[in-house]
Every structure is written in structure tokens, then in C-alpha cells.
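@channel sequence for tomorrow's demo:
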Amino acid sequence: MAPETYTSHATHRMQELDGRRLAPFGRRVLAFGLDFLLAITLVMLLVLGGTQLAARLHLMPADAHVHLEFDFHHWYSVLSLVVYFGLTTFYGNGQTPGKRLTRIRVVSTLHPRLSLWHSLERALGYGASALELGFGFLQYFIAENRQTVHDRIAATVVVVEPDKMAPPESA
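C-alpha cells (generated this afternoon):
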């Protein structure tokens, strides 16, 4: 017979995260903005370097005009952001360069370390958060544990990194 009441299925990992300070909205926005600018800069540098290399190898004319638009109407605009956010989140264990500067970290509510899949899933989830004029980002203010749409898609939360210089809290 099925139970008549809801049974919580809190994982051991969720219990480990209990009491962690959630990242404030301002820090999350700042980190995202820094990462977005860094991602665009890296793409531009890669394209410029690639075209110069192609010209030196005589794969294209040295005076060829390269037109790169970062307007989300081209596949490389979206792909480059997904690759940037996915890989930096994975290799930084939840910290992109922007998150590292703002001292916040993405953590999984299921596993001790983010997998590559969870990192890419979260990066793809930014698109879902941006839909309908960014309402998915604003769900930070109404969702449990301050989770945005991309957090819920990837089963993550964003927490403040503890100060390494602070003395440990006594029980």
C-alpha cells in the first residue's frame, strides 16, 4: 500500500550542505557578467589567432576579412558560451573565474563533486533561465534555496566560499 504522506528523500549530500550560506544575487550577477566578458574575449582571441595562423599557413589570404558576430543568431555564439561555462565550472570544481573572484561556488546537491555532465547541463540551462525576459534568473528570489532555473535543471546550489583566513567555528 502506498504511503499517504510525502516522504523526504534528502540525500546524504543535501544533509552535508545544510547550513551553508547561499550566494547573494549581486555576487552571482557580477560573477556571470565577468565570465560572460571573459568568454567573449577568449573567443575573439581564438578567432584572431586562428585567422593569423591560417594566413601564415597559406590556408586563407592574408588580407581576408573575418566577420565574427556574437549575437546568438550563429551556432558558435551559443556553443562557445556553453563550452566556456561548462568546462570552467567542471575544471574549477564549481568555480568559473568570475565565481572565484567573487568567492562563490556551484555545488551539486547530489554528489561531492560536479561531473562534466552536470556542468554542461547547468551551462545549457542558462538558456532556459534567459527565456521570457530572464525570469529564470529572477526565480532566485522566490525559489527554495535561491535556485534559479539552471540550478534546478542541474541539481545545484550556489554557495559562498568560507573565508580561509577566518578561525574555525566552534561547536
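heads up for whoever presents: The CA atoms of residues 129 and 135 lie 6 Å apart.
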